[in-house]
Amino acid sequence: MNLVDEKPAPSEKSRFGGVATGPGSKPWLEPIILIACCGFLYLETFSLPDIPRVAIGDQSIYLHNAARMLEGQIIYRDYDYFTLPGTDVLYAILFRLFGIRAWIPQAMLVLVGVITTWLSIGISRKLMKGWAVFLPGFVFLALPFSSYLDATHHWYSTLCAVAALAVVIEERTPGRLMWAGLLWGLATCFAQSLALGPMGLGLFLVWEHRRKEETRGLLLKKESCLFASYVATVAAFSAYFVWKAGPRRFLSYTVVFIAKYYSTYPANNWKAYMAGRPSVHVWANWPDLVAWPLIHLLIPLVYLLFFVRYWREARFWPQKPWERLMLVNITGLCLFLAVASGPAWNRLYTVSLPALIILVWFLNSPLKLEKNLLRGLWAIVMVLAVVRPIVTQVHWRAYLNLPTGRTSFLDPTLYLQAKWLDQRTQPYDYFFGDQLLCFALRLRAPSRIAFATPFDFTRPDEVQDLIRGLEEHQVRFVSWYNGLDPPVDNARDNLAPLRRYLRNHYRVAQTFSSGDIIWERNQ
Questions:
Q1: What is the SS3 assignment for 122-164?
Q2: Contact by Cβ (8 Å): 491, 455
Q3: Which of 9, 65, 263, 449 has the smallest count of CB within 10 Å of its CB?
C-alpha cells in the first residue's frame, strides 16, 4: 500500500537518499536502463546510421532566433519574440561550439529525455519501492515525450522544474531551497509562466511549516533562500537583454504582449484544450491514440484526486510519504497552471511527468484492479519500446544535403519545399515565411519577425516592418501557407497590406500539394 520505510538502512540509500529495494539494490541496472533509453530516443530522432530528422515544429523558431543571435542580433532589440531568451541563448552557445548544425536539436532531445527519466527515477524512489520506481519515467518517455519530439522551450523549462523537484523531494533545507530557486529561475528564463513554480513551492513550505509546527524564523529563512535565489537568477540572466533592448521594450514583449495579444492565436487560449485529436488514418501516429487520451484524462484530474485521497487517508496512514507526495502534486499542479491559459495537447505533454508519478503511486497497490492497470501500463511501455523505433525507422524518408548538414525528411511535402528552395537559393540569401527553411538552408529573415499570422499575434507595426524589409532587400522568395488567409471570425486583418504588396510585386512560382505556395519577386 505505497509504504515507505522512513528509516532505511544506510546500505539501502540511493544517490537521492531514498529507499532502494529489489532493482534499486543493483547499482549496474540504472546505467543500463538509461543507456537503453538513450538508444530508444536516438532511433526516434535520427535516421540510421547518423542522419538527424529535420527540426519541424516550434523548435525551428528558436533555432532561427539563435542563428540571428550568433550574427550579433539581440532579441527584443533586433528581432521580436515574447519568451525570455533562455532557449535562444542555449542554442546560440551550442552553435558557437559546434556550428549551426541540424543534429544539435535532435541530440538535445535525446539528452533532455534521458536526464528527465533519470530524475524521475530518483523522485519515484522517495515514494515507492520495487520496479514501480522506473515506470513513470518509462511511460513519460514512450508516450508524451516521444509524441512531441520538438526541442522547444517547453522541454527545457520542464527539465529545470523536475530538477528543482528532485533537489528538494527528500528535505527542504535552506541550502537545497537555494538550489531549487536557481533551477526554477532557469526554468523561468525558458518560459516566464514557470514563475508559478517557486510560488507553489513557497505555499508548500507554509503547509509543511504548519504540519511540522516549525518556528516562524525557520520558515522565513527557507522562503528567503528560495525566492532570493530565484529572483537573483532571473535578474542576472535578463540584465544583459534589458540593457541592450531597454526596459520598456523588454517589458513590452515579455509582459504587455502576452497580456494583450498572446491569446489571439488559437493555440494560445482555452479553446486549445481537447483540440488536435490524432487521426486514426495516419498509421505512423498510432501511439498518439494512447498518449492523447491518457494525458488529457490525467491532467489535472489526478492532482484533484490526490487532494481527496490525502484528506481521507492522511490521519489513518501517517507512515505514507505524504509530504513528498504533496510536493510532487503541488509541483505538477503549478506546471499545469503554467500552461492552462493555452492547454494544447503538446503543452500538456510537456508538463505530464508529475501526473504520471502520482498515477503510478495510485496504482502501486495490492488491490486487483490497480495491479491489473499497472500491468497494462507496463505492457504498453514494453510494446512501444520495441515497436515505436521500428515504425520510425521504416517510415518513408528522403534526404537532402543542406547547409546545416545532411538531413532526413519524413514529410514528402516538406521535403519537396526544402529541395525546391535549396536549388534556387544560397546561404545568407533573404527569405521570409518559414523559419524552418530559414534555419535549415541558412537563410536570413528580412524583418524583425520570421513568420506571420493572420491574428493580432502579428502586430500591424511588424507587418509594416516586414514590407519595408522585403522592399529594401528585394527579397526573391516568400513562403505562404493557406492558414494565412483572412480568418472568417476575425474582423481585423493585419496582413491585408502584406497581401496587397505581394500581389503587386510578386507572382506565384510554385504551389505544393499542401496548399502552400512560394511567391517569387517580379523581374
A1: HHHCCCCCHHHHCHHHHHHHHHHHHHCCCCCHHHHHHHHHHHH
A2: no
A3: 9
216-236 pLDDT per residue, tens: 999 999 999 999 999 999 999
Q: Nearest to residue 47, comparing CAs of 411, 389, 480?
A: 389
Report the predicted TM-score, pTM, of the whole model to 2 decimal places.
0.92
Q: Identify whether the C-beta of residue 19 lies closer than 8 Å to the C-beta of residue 5.
A: yes
State the burial class of residue 508 (Cβ atoms within 10 Å of its Cβ: 0-12, 13-18, 19+). exposed
Q: What is the pLDDT of residue 289?
A: 84
Q: Spell out the residues 6+ positions from residue 402 whose beta carbon is closer than 8 angstroms to its own.
A: 102, 418, 422, 440, 441
Contacts of 99 (CB under 8 A, 6+ apart): none
154 vs 142: CA distance, rounded Å: 18
Q: Which residues contact 445 (CB under 8 A, 6 or more apart)?
A: 64, 68, 79, 430, 431, 432, 435, 438, 469
Q: What is residue 400's three-state secondary structure?
A: strand
How confident is the model at residue 518, as a pLDDT? 97
The DSSP secondary-structure symbol of 401 reads E
Distance CA 179, CA 185 (A): 10
Q: Give the separation between CA 387 and CA 404, rounded to whole angstroms.
A: 30
What CA–CA distance (Å, rounded) separates 437 from 451? 11
Query: How far is residue 519's CA from residue 478's CA, in Å, rounded to a whole number?
Result: 5
> Residue 51: enclosing H or E segment and its boundaries?
strand 51-52
Q: Which of 478, 472, 484 is nearest to 515 (CA)?
A: 484
HSE, side-chain direction, 13 A CA sphere, residue 113: 34
Cell numbers given for 288: 498518439
- In three-state form (DSSP H/G/I as H, E/B as E, the rest C), the secondary structure along 188-220 is HHHCHHHHHHHHHHHHHHHHHHHHHCCCHHHHH
518 phi and psi angles, rounded to 5 deg = -115, 125
Predicted confidence (pLDDT) at residue 298 exceeds the cutoff of 70: yes
Rg (CA), the chain: 24
Helix axes 322-339, 153-168, angle to 10 degrees: 160
